[in-house]
Amino acid sequence: MFAVEVRDHIMIAHSLPRPVFGPAQGMHGATFVVDAAFFTRDVDEDGLAVDIGAATTVLGEVLKPLNYKNLDELSVFTGKITTTEVIAKHIFDELARAVADKRLGPGSHRICRLKVTLHESHAARGWYEADL
In the structure, what pLDDT confidence band is assigned to residue 27 with cuts at 50, 70 and 90? Predict the structure, then answer.
C-alpha cells in the first residue's frame, strides 16, 4: 500500500461537559496538529500515489471552517462531545467527500483508505482510519 501524508493545524475552543473529562469540562482552547494520510494500492504513470499539492490544499479547505472556532457553537457538532476522536472522524468524513468529488485530481479514484490523526500534544494523539 502506498500513502501520502500531509499536515496542517487548527486552533479551536470547546468544552467536554461530562465528569469523565475533569477540568476539560469547562471551555478551553486546543491546538491540534492534523495529519491526513491518503492510501492507494498503486501509483500512477508519474509514480504518484496522490498529488501532495492537491492533498495539502484539500486538507486546508476541510480545516478552515473549524479553525479559530468554538466547536460548541458549530451546528455540525450539535449533540456531540467534541473529543479528539470525534473531531478526527468529522475531518475524515469531509476528506472522504472531497475524494468522492474528485477534488484530489485525476487519481482521486485510486484512493482507497484514509487516516486522520489529531496530535493534542507531543505526548498524545488520536485518529480515525477506514477504507473508502
Answer: very high
